[in-house]
């Protein structure tokens, strides 16, 4: 449930306003170089060298008032960072995820001014993936005073030490849960140890949980169903949004099962399955 989120909208203080952001910024820099911000732990000396995500200096591809998020979140002040620590073969944001040099180098004061003045209900850090940009994001918040919920819109593959920092200033974790097993994660996103890391981080998250499950064609039984079973046992209070708008993008054409949209039978199968679970679940169709 989004209890913290709605409390802030009614006047409770967002976490970042009472956090020691200067201290968190220094801790984030320690994780930044050698980099262990995400679970890949490339340990490169940034910004001189890029790890798997390709990020050296943090860049913002776009920031705008987003009306396409969950109804409770709109209008959302969405800030898209370039680069990503996944390589999803069907990536729908591949134009920024795969090109970390896209966009403008972060100017914390300018971004903070936009947050302060935009007609928004929250500030929503996304990508690509926001995790490689943790120091820049905290630096932005150091320039902010507006009482807005902070949303971390992520693939949830950050390191445990990164989670410890995030828990100090993030109000809502808007997390993707994509795969029910490590084989599919490795094949389709080139990410190792996926289920262990993501499950750990969802359980560590100190804030509201909004879990998005993008249904992938051909992956209902191996991925969607195991994910929903795990959420039911471990995060029963999470707000779960099941997305059916998958379309082949990037290099999905190389994978026959992904080179199509979902069919009626797949959507019906998952609808029947979630009907048996007592979850706060919505199916978002496009």
Largest sheet entry: 9 strands, mixed
The Cα radius of gyration reads: 18 Å
CATH topology category name: TIM Barrel
Proportion of residues in helical segments: 25-40%
Mean pLDDT: 95
Order of helices and strands: HHEEHEHEHEHEHHEHEHE
Overall tally of domains: 1
Q: Ends: how far apart? A: 23 Å
CATH class: Alpha Beta
The appropriate CATH architecture is Alpha-Beta Barrel
Shape: globular
Proportion of residues in β-strands: 15-25%
Query: How would you write the strand order of the largest sheet?
Result: 3-1-2-4-5-6-7-8-9
Quick rundown:
The chain has 10 helices and 9 strands. With 286 residues, it is an alpha/beta fold. The two termini are 23 Å apart.
Note down, in words, how this protein is organized.
This protein is of the alpha/beta class. The protein has a single domain, classed as Aldolase class I (TIM Barrel). The protein is about 35% helix and about 15% strand. Strands 3-1-2-4-5-6-7-8-9 form a nine-stranded mixed β-sheet. The two termini are about 25 Å apart. The model has no long low-confidence stretch (mean pLDDT about 95).
Question: What's the SSE blueprint?
Answer:
Layout: H1 3-9, H2 21-32, E1 59-66, E2 76-81, H3 94-97, E3 104-105, H4 108-117, E4 123-126, H5 134-142, E5 150-154, H6 160-169, E6 172-176, H7 182-189, H8 194-204, E7 208-214, H9 220-234, E8 239-243, H10 264-274, E9 280-284
Parallel strand pairs: 2-4, 4-5, 5-6, 6-7, 7-8, 8-9
Antiparallel strand pairs: 1-2, 1-3
Task: Give descriptors for this structure.
single chain; 286 residues; TIM Barrel; 9-stranded mixed β-sheet; 9 strands; 16% strand
